[in-house]
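Hi Y.,

Following your request, here is the sequence exactly as I used it, all 192 residues.
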Amino acid sequence: MNELHKKYLEKLSKLKEIYKKYGFSTVLEELDKDITDISDFKVTVPLVGAFSTGKSSLINELIGYEMLSTDITPETAVPTELTYGEENVVYCMKNGTKQNDILNTSGSQTIPNDTALMKISMKSSFLEQIPDIRLVDMPGFDSGIEIHNRAINDYLPKSLAYIIAVAADEGTVRASVLNFLTELQLNDIPVY
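Below is the corresponding structure, written out as tokens. Let me know if you'd prefer a different format.
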């Protein structure tokens, strides 16, 4: 956690003591939520692009495990967040609840039915170098699968930084990726 996080957490802790002293219970609940949000804050960076451009393969290579499923067919069904953690654990988010499971580092993860989001916390030398980043493997554009489109549309507005993946063997950028870049520019999100 960086110094700015620590500074704000100290100030919020002092504020919490004052609120407790004077019995502001409704504000305490909101303050506890803010403290949790700041403690867990990470910059969310989705890896986006057309399906089968190698997004999952790139992340597997970076983290040093063949964890994310890769195949010629559209494989990534839900956003998968990866962060550094002392324990290898996976959380499957279903209907607003979190189900913990031990991370399978010897093969790809099984995604339970009705999962809307996967959160993976793991020991990885690459992720350890970027502790304040939440790297996200996303379903690809143009998969033709409605649940993939819904996952993309629901998740992407949560970010202000994106990594765009383009297949080197295609020679051009697909129209869906160009449309995404145009949307970013229309919403005054810098594109470099």
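The helical segments are 3-21, 25-39, 55-63, 125-129, 146-155, 175-186.

Thanks again,
Q.
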